[in-house]
User: Fold these one by one.
Assistant:
Number 1:
Amino acid sequence: MFDGKPLADAELTFVPEQSNVDVTPGTGITDADGEYRARYLGKFGLSPGTYKVTLSKSTVAPDMGNIPPEMLDDPEQLRLSGATTQTLPDTYADLSKTAFTIEVAEGNGPYDFELDSKGR
């Protein structure tokens, strides 16, 4: 949720705490209802452990002109090329600033996140 409304097309990244070096990072993308399914190594779900969670949402910069179609399907390439801008406050998207931490264990979840435009 972002400012009380579902947040679509946001990317969640689940980064294992340093004490969980055997845990694999995971990702998820929110749908129109703000719901997501986390996955790692091509499977849905996350390995048990403690994760810091970042949330980001990017939009293509309007002044980028013609972007090759193959880049439009690759968010990482768009980000690396500078073709996108972050629309969420850094407190959510920056691993060193995020306040979101979850403990994944059998039977836990779903994990919901409340965001606001002020980054609190």
Note: The first strand starts at residue 11 and ends at 16.
Number 2:
Amino acid sequence: MYNPKGFGKVAVLAGGSSSERAISIRSGRAVYKALKKAGCDVVRVDITGVGVKRIIDKLSADLIFLALHGRFGEDGTIQKVLENMGFPYTGSGVTASKLALDKIASKKIFEKRGIPVPPYRILDRRNAKKAKGFLYPLVVKPQNEGSSIGLSIVKRNEELNDAFKRAFRYSDKIIVERFIEGREITVGILDEKPLPVIEIVPGRDFYDFYAKYKDKKTKYMVPASLPRHIYKRAQKLGLLAHKALRCRDFSRVDMILSERGDIFVLEVNTIPGLTTRSLLPKAAGSAGIRFDELCMKLLELALKNRGDKD
């Protein structure tokens, strides 16, 4: 199906300097092992953001596999560096990456495209002190973070200030969003097609960082057991959100299915996790695509879409 030799030397970039560094290292290790197993000439590199151009230059690589999560990896920074250096790389381009990590910018685009999002307010450090009129429960999260970092579920007014402080540690602007009671679902996109829907059933109140990466009680229903019309609606919205931000090759779109049957898009991840617990590989596996095949497919798409990244 694939010709590993046709990719030349592949460099897997992982680590980074964001709050998601530890997860990125795990993703990079898993991708490296998969590509090695598939017969690729591959090297894994821990990128910290310092001396990036010099490090990449010394690699003499032909193709870059990005396993960097969060800022620097998903905000268009490394993508811009690689484009300026002339290296093809996996995933979305500069603009799409920047928009997807910016939860405020992406929400505004979704609204313009008629993609439903939970009602929200945007606050900065100045107006947060005077903000009133909130209906509980609600969600507080930073503008530019992934993996639920800096996120809080606030059930009463006494918890609000602590939630603000937590979110402001990561961004100068934060989002206060209505908490939608319902089921958490996610749709992976691969080669501009939706993968099987996954339902996430956390073993705690909500799907936070601990539930994602540590809690063994978290369950994943693949494919999700949903009425057919809701299942198809979720896949359609996932693809619409992916395209609205001009993403390429792959992404993962997180949503909430309300108790009334309404679906709200929460965010798009342009470089979703690639660990053994990660959702995109689980969805691909449900579609009959092994993890090594998924990694090879992403390399194939990177070469196919070279020059069409922004």
Note: The radius of gyration is 19 Å.
